[in-house]
Specification:
The complex is a heterodimer of chains A (181) and B (426).
Chain A: H1 7-37, E1 39-44, E2 58-60, E3 67-69, E4 73-74, E5 84-90, E6 98-103, E7 113-123, E8 127-131, E9 136-138, E10 154-160, E11 166-173
Chain B: H1 3-15, H2 21-30, H3 34-60, H4 67-90, H5 94-118, H6 127-142, H7 146-167, H8 172-188, H9 192-213, H10 221-233, H11 237-261, H12 265-270, H13 275-296, H14 318-342, H15 345-367, H16 373-409
Chain lengths: 181, 426
């Protein structure tokens, strides 16, 4: 095992460190590219609880699309907890997306539709609980959410990259925030 | 031996004529006082405090820093940790050097997580975490350091925990990377601590797999005994035993649980995997283990496999509990017999403890229902006391005989006084 400080050992270490830096830059690049080349949709949520912002840097978003009726399930076998699914959403140019169907396999959306990856959290009698891993929103320092209005109603702008990766672009307040006292 | 011990004991050695005063002075000079080293820690403590203050300033303002600055801070600290590590290694300070390189590895993981967070990227692809494990394994090959060997094992266990708990998938790639990457590193450069940590890390991942796939928990012992068999094939006996420790402890606890709760058929029913598949896999591993033991000349440890006897296929109820107890006794007896042959004090202690545990379980199991409770505790106490007295006496006489025979073989005649009996076993 090369543990001496030979030139080849030093070269290997440098290559490995360079690969790590490139990897982190690649993650950042994927973030930019998702916004630049992705499909943009609006998702509706329940009013946001801002209490957690006092202790953490993120808030939890509870999407309306996190619950789908069992009739929307389009799979060969019944859905199971923790199963990975593809959620077909109907979108409009500026309207909130609604669940059109939950699929077990990937599919190609028609115009006016988008596919978001998700997981089944729970199977109830008539509904499916879904999770998109978009539930945590790390609130930037200049976000209006930081102004401290309790439980504001918001809508969430999500971009979905052609390769399926999704990210929250921004969170918008539905009404003008009242100025903090 | 500590410096303090040397300082307090050595005057007596001089008085008894074991060493001369000059030799005592040379011995004391060989082990310098610890006070000098304690002063050497002050700069380290100081730099930790300065580092913590910088960290808290950055953490408090993290969300309001511009994106580019955050990325720059992460990459800058990553590169400076590695550069600092290389610098200290070149100057010959191995501990600080390896510590900084380990810090660099941790910072790489933090950079991946925080960058994903920065761009609100969802965590459903685990490629980032996998890259972290890959880099950890590669670093452990580039440096000869215990810290850097243990880090990828711990990171792998953490990544697997995240995958199974948060994402609901089992990452076979992570398991394979740790098993083959860190495993091969151990095979080439055996080390007892690393062997135990590696075995525990892999067992943890195996347990997560069983929990996630809702398999019968007995399937856990297939990967566990694969780890055990790998220990049999290793040329270094101590390192092999260290790798085998965790799987054996798991198998023992399982057998103990079976003896305690095996009576209810409901519990035994939870344990029964398909007979042919399970027994076939276990038999293959047994053959692999026996071949390894034979090649390395360690067939004496074959009774370890007693713990793996699939007694849970027996109908539940008293027969199962009693059969398991017989197995526990046979195992404890085999450990004691092996220890008596080799004369190892630690093995004797272990065998004694195992024997007493088996007796306790048997006693509680078989007499609780029949005896008056005060009589139950009285007989149990007397039984254990007499058993421990007997085993201690046997072990002490056995070890004393070993010491005496060793002294008899020594070339110089020993003084007439008999060797003092060894410390009685716990």
């Amino acid at each position: 095992m090369p543990t001496r400080h030979t030139p080849s050992h030093r070269l290997l270490v440098r290559l490995l460190v360079a690969a790590q830096v490139l990897y982190v830059l690649g993650v950042a690049g994927a973030g930019y590219a998702t916004t630049a080349y992705g499909q943009h949709i609006w998702l509706a949520t329940a009013p946001v609880e801002l209490h957690s912002l006092q202790y953490e840097s993120f808030v939890r978003l509870r999407y309306t699309a996190a619950e789908a009726p069992l009739t929307a399930w389009r799979g060969a076998s019944p859905p199971q907890r923790r199963q990975a699914v593809y959620v077909l959403l109907n979108t409009g140019p500026d309207s909130l997306a609604t669940v059109a169907g939950v699929y077990a396999k990937t599919l190609k959306p028609n115009p006016g539709q988008a596919v978001l990856r998700g997981w089944v959290t729970e199977v109830y009698n008539h509904t499916l609980g879904l999770r998109y891993n978009l539930e945590r929103y790390y609130v930037p320092g200049d976000s209006p959410l930081r102004l401290g209005k309790t439980s504001p109603a918001v809508r969430v702008r999500v971009s979905i990259a052609p390769w399926g990766q999704a990210r929250i672009e921004r969170v918008e307040l539905l009404k003008k925030p009242t100025a903090a006292r | 031996m500590s410096r303090k011990f040397l300082e307090t004991e050595s005057p007596a050695w001089v008085a008894e004529g074991l060493i001369s005063e000059a030799q005592r002075a040379r011995l004391l000079a060989r082990y310098p006082s610890d006070a000098v080293q304690a002063v050497g820690l002050l700069p380290l403590l100081g730099s930790i405090l300065v580092g913590l203050s910088a960290l808290s300033v950055v953490a408090a303002n993290w969300q309001s820093l511009p994106t580019q600055l955050r990325l720059g801070l992460l990459l800058g600290s990553l590169m400076s940790a590695y550069a600092g590590g290389e610098y200290f290694l070149r100057r010959g300070n191995r501990r600080v050097g390896h510590g900084l390189i380990g810090l660099g590895l941790v910072l790489f993981g933090a950079s991946i997580i925080l960058t994903s967070q920065l761009y609100q990227l969802v965590g459903y692809d685990i490629s980032g975490l996998l890259a972290w494990v890959v880099v950890g394994v590669l670093l452990s090959y580039l440096y000869n350091s215990q810290t850097l060997i243990l880090l990828p094992i711990l990171i792998g266990a953490a990544v697997q925990t995240y995958c199974t708990q948060a994402l609901g998938i089992f990452s076979y790639a992570t398991m394979g990377l740790v098993a083959l990457g860190s495993g091969y590193r151990w095979w080439r450069r055996p080390d007892t601590l690393m062997a135990s940590v590696l075995a525990v890390g892999l067992l943890w991942q195996a347990a997560l797999w069983v929990a996630l796939s809702h398999s019968k928990i007995t399937w856990f012992f297939i990967p566990a005994m694969l780890i055990y068999a790998a220990g049999d094939w290793h040329r270094d006996r101590a390192a092999g035993r260290a790798l085998q420790g965790p799987p054996l402890v798991a198998a023992y606890l399982f057998a103990l649980g079976l003896a305690l709760f095996g009576e209810t058929d409901q519990y035994a029913g939870l344990l029964r995997p398909p007979v042919l598949a399970y027994l076939g896999a276990l038999a293959a591993l047994f053959a692999l283990s026996v071949a390894g033991k034979r090649q390395q000349g360690r067939l004496a440890s074959l009774p370890d496999w007693l713990l793996l006897l699939p007694g849970f296929y027996l109908p539940g109820g008293l027969p199962l509990a009693i059969a398991t107890l017989v197995v526990l006794y046979a195992h404890a007896g085999s450990v004691l017999a092996r220890a008596h042959r080799s004369g190892e004090a630690e093995q004797l202690t272990l065998g004694t403890v195992l024997f007493i545990i088996a007796t306790m379980v048997a006693y509680f199991k078989l007499t609780w229902a029949f005896l008056d409770k005060s009589l139950f505790f009285l007989i149990g106490g007397v039984l254990l006391l007499s058993l421990s007295w007997y085993l201690r006496r046997r072990n002490a006489s056995r070890l004393a005989a070993g010491v005496a025979s060793a002294a008899g073989n020594a070339p110089t005649p020993t003084p007439a006084s008999p060797p003092s009996p060894p410390e009685p076993l716990a």
